[in-house]
Amino acid sequence: MKPGEGSSNKPAPSSVSPDQQPGRAVRLARSLGSLLQGALGGKNPKAEAQGAEANPALSIWKATHGHGGAKPVVPQAHPKLAPKPKAPAGKGGRRGKGAVVAPRRPIIQVIERPRPTLNRGKPVPGSVTTEAGLIVPAAPALINPYAGWSQTDVQDRIRQLLGDVEVPRFRKAVFETLRRLRDPDTTPGKIMEVMSIDAQLVGKVMNTVNSTAYSPKSKVQSLDHAIMLMGNADLERIVMIVGSKAAMPSQTHAKFALGDFWRASSRRAVLARELADIVQPSKANLSFTAGFLQDLSVPLIVSSKKDDYMKIFSTAIEEKRDLHTLEHETMGWDHAEVGALIALNWELPEDVMLCMKDHNDGAAQTRPDAAHYVSTLHASHGEEWNEIFANKVGQRYQVPREALDDVCNNSISKAAELAKLF
Fold it and tell me: Do 184 and 319 lie in a common domain?
């Protein structure tokens, strides 16, 4: 029998196993879906049925994939567009037109300030050289011209300047008190033990620290309270003032007003302290001591040189000239050098000695500025000197004129109280 003969109209058996064929209800639902989709899409159900009979495998694929038409085509993905910039967020998170936009931060302008000068070149002693080769100059060192001098050298120089004059000395109690105050291992009990021997010393120290001239923050009740409240360094300066005044000669020359001299010294101390409280608070106590002691050698020079020195002293007052300038023109040295030598002889601290030595030098860095500005004050000076003082300080520190006038006026009464204590 030939292949074409005896063939029937039945479709060829499917290659899908009976287990994989869908149930009758499922097949009926899918057929109705395909007929409905074809009707809506304008397709011919009969043509599709004929195509299904010609290719039964394709019809099964369509039925299992739930697709009533041709093989699905996957659409191409469109490139993503860049998002539009969002409007700035305003108050409450609102965006777009009408949003309340927060103001921008103000632009901060950076001001370039001058920097320290850095030199390239040959290093000098004490300078610091950085890794980049920059040489930073060292801070000016305090030069002590008397470093290495012995007491014999000091006494020989005093005799060379003043002749065979007896150099005044501290009382034993004063000297021992200063020594114990400088001892780092001392105790308040040891200081009180030696000061209590000299009742006059204790009385004057207590009166000084409680005076308006020294302006204590609270009243000092007793010596041990003074030691604890002030500290050894500040108490030492008061003891130095009391001991120095007691060591100076009480009689010098008939034309030399010793009372006016000590009143001027007291006013210099008060002025220097109150000015330092404004411009250099850390130097206030040193300024007080330096202001009082800077002309300490003048009575001793008067006792030694008599009329010859009184001519110089009187000329400086009458012609309103600097005393140390006339001393150099006439003698070749001044009272500042003698004062430094006395401080060395008394073994006073180095900072006090340098203040006494350089108080007339406007360019010196070895003393507080306040001690220099009061150095020209004399007992005979009045409002005219106050005007000069206020102008110099005002130009240097930009201190209000009203504050300087108050300092000058208040110093008169405070200095008078301090002078009475001696």
Answer: no
